[in-house]
Amino acid sequence: MKHIKLSLVSFLCIFILNCNSGYRAPYGFFLQQTTFNKDIYSGNSLGEKVGEGCIVAYLLLISQGDASIKSAAHNAPNGGITKIYAVDYRKEQFLGFVQQKLCTVVYGD
Prior knowledge:
Blueprint: H1 2-17, E1 31-39, E2 49-58, E3 62-65, H2 69-74, E4 84-94, E5 99-108
Antiparallel strand pairs: 1-4, 2-3, 2-5, 4-5
């Protein structure tokens, strides 16, 4: 009986921890490299330019950067993006907390 209770509690803990509330990338503790689209564009072209803004964190102690859409559009080559068609997000992390990086990627003209 004790093993059944322990198994049930373990299952419930794992189930609750894996509940995904909202639209986000799956979590990988050892290594994660995912790109996903949150803002869907219904047109045929994504534009000629791509811009990216990133935030980087180390050991959950230091975090720096700007991953706003405005920053990503400004960082595009040849004068930046003035008309945004789509926005993607990229998340990379190593060993959960050693190094984390979140980037906003914008496409447009």
